[in-house]
Amino acid sequence: MAVSDIQTAAPVRDASTTAARIRAADFVVKRHYLRWWEALPWLLIIAAYFVFPDRLTFGTQVLIGIMFALSLDLILGYAGIVTLGHALFFGIGAYTVALLTARWNWGEPISAMLLAIVLSAAAGLVSGWFLLRYRGLTLLMLTLAAAILVQEAGNYRSDITGGYDGVPGMEIWKLFGVFENDLYGRTYYVYVGVLLFIVWYVVRRIVYSPYGAALTGIRENVRRMHAIGSPVHRRLVTAYTLAAGLAGMAGALFAQSTAYTTLGVFDFDNSAKVMVMLILGGTGRLYGAFIGAAVYLVLEDNLSKLSPTFWQFGIGLLLVLTVLFARRGLLGLLEDAIKLFRRGGNA
């Protein structure tokens, strides 16, 4: 290459590098901005209140499922913490509410929910401090074992927990002393919907913050994060604690909305179900929890009516198709379809 060609190419490279840096900086600055399409899930949730007035009890469970999936997405999708024991914190939240009302005659929903968040977060902090020193298959088995140990401890003291028969005598007081959980579930649908919005906003602020970027860096290359001096373990434990508190919140709302809790909330099935929800929707995408939880629970409800024995076949088939042909989940598939449509329009 001639000297003149090198001199000509150098400014071009510098200009392209500068442009790339400007685009990257612009993305970092604006990535937390709200987009118009982010209002769509909330518009659908509001519309469902009026379109399906006789299905709001089920709708409440869908909202709780979304909250539970969001809590898992914070650690699995963004921090790369793979766990099969997330139901541990859901169960702690549910049993906090159940035991408060059944054993200590305290059924006030807000304070019980707050206590459930604190206890679940404390359990996440203690267990996470020890368990998150491990990764991979070891961590997977340890998180599963932790949930099983707590479940078996509850089964051993069935005189307190009610075992698999459930906690008897649960009586949840009126919300704010005024709004009763009516037969159609209108009160708790609104109550859980408002709390879900708060949880979504908190999680969104976390994942788009510098701390969220650090979690993504840990997920992508934990050795490099260690090399640059990032406090990896502390950040993982913090995320695990936050996710545990949010899962406990979902468990508390589940117990309050159904006024019934058994040791089944700690089951491996519960941990696996929320992971399937997230995989269906798309991990590390914030809104994958909305799509995945809604699709899973609606399919479960309808397929179980068609075939109470073989309904899981339909869920399994959808999961296989998603893993094979939509590895970024249904949300990723939707994004690809939109990009393809835009390219066709521009052509």
From TrEMBL:
The keyword Glycoprotein does not apply. InterPro entries: ABC_transp_permease, LivM-like. It is found in: Cell membrane. This is Branched-chain amino acid ABC transporter permease. The chain crosses the membrane at residues 33-52, 58-81, 88-106, 112-132, 188-215, 236-255, 275-298, 310-330. It comes from Pseudolabrys taiwanensis. It is a multi-pass membrane protein. PANTHER family: ABC TRANSPORTER ATP-BINDING PROTEIN, HIGH-AFFINITY BRANCHED-CHAIN AMINO ACID TRANSPORT SYSTEM PERMEASE. CDD domains: TM_PBP1_LivM_like.
